[in-house]
Amino acid sequence: MDVKSLGYRTDLMLLRLCGSQLEEQSGHFTIRTPRNPGFWWGNFLLYKSLPASGEFERWQAEFRAAFPAAKHMTFGVDCTDGQLGEVAAEIEAAGFELAPNTVMTAGRADLRPPARPNMRGEYRKLTRDDDWAQALQLRLACNDTVKAQSYQIHAEERMREARRMAEAGHGGWFGAFVNGQMEAGMGLYTDGCGVARFQSVETRPEARGQGLASNLVHFAAQYGFEQMNAQTLVMVADPDYLAIRLYRAVGFKDTETQLGFEKRPA
């Protein structure tokens, strides 16, 4: 699959590794994750270019045909500048939220140690059943946008996917533990192509501001270079969320903008 966007290229890499189905069609790709139909960005259409004026209605019809039972709608565009142009008003008028993200990269020479080392934390790759159970509980504790019951089903399947990929040798999930409790976590995975992608950097709300996440990102990045033979690490971040400063501080650089838009279930 010829995809220009580094953000989507690494998204698709991860989705393939966890068993998602990718199908190329005229003008777009259809991505399905049958084990997790409620995963918005595991069940979406990725278009090769922006819609022309008046064309977005057809996109929505194509989504409904591909995912007749879905309560959400999600679309990606294979571009690198994140610009929608004149069609933005049409998309927003249809009830969609624009979701531009900053795609960041770091090579081995770019990596910098955290400005605030947190020596209280134990930073390591997850290996035990209890580690994975704690990772799920951390994920649930960090959810503040989706209804708890539906989110738990989604989160459980996502963590099972993360564990399967780790046990298959594609990378791992990492945790920052304080007094035995996992306070921050994240994944880092690759298909062996030399590029590794971070996933879901999370810190328990009451443990934020202590430097745990930056120390864990640095630890996992070193692991990626030394143990996963990665040449480039990729991080995708919300440009308006404070965590992006954390990633820049340890050496990640803004590289491109990933463009998507979503319509949440009613």
From TrEMBL:
<feature type="domain" description="N-acetyltransferase">
    <location>
        <begin position="121"/>
        <end position="266"/>
    </location>
</feature>
<protein>
    <submittedName>
        <fullName>GNAT family N-acetyltransferase</fullName>
    </submittedName>
</protein>
<dbReference type="GO" id="GO:0016747">
    <property type="term" value="F:acyltransferase activity, transferring groups other than amino-acyl groups"/>
</dbReference>
<dbReference type="InterPro" id="IPR016181">
    <property type="entry name" value="Acyl_CoA_acyltransferase"/>
</dbReference>
<keyword id="KW-0808">Transferase</keyword>
<dbReference type="Pfam" id="PF00583">
    <property type="entry name" value="Acetyltransf_1"/>
</dbReference>
<dbReference type="InterPro" id="IPR000182">
    <property type="entry name" value="GNAT_dom"/>
</dbReference>
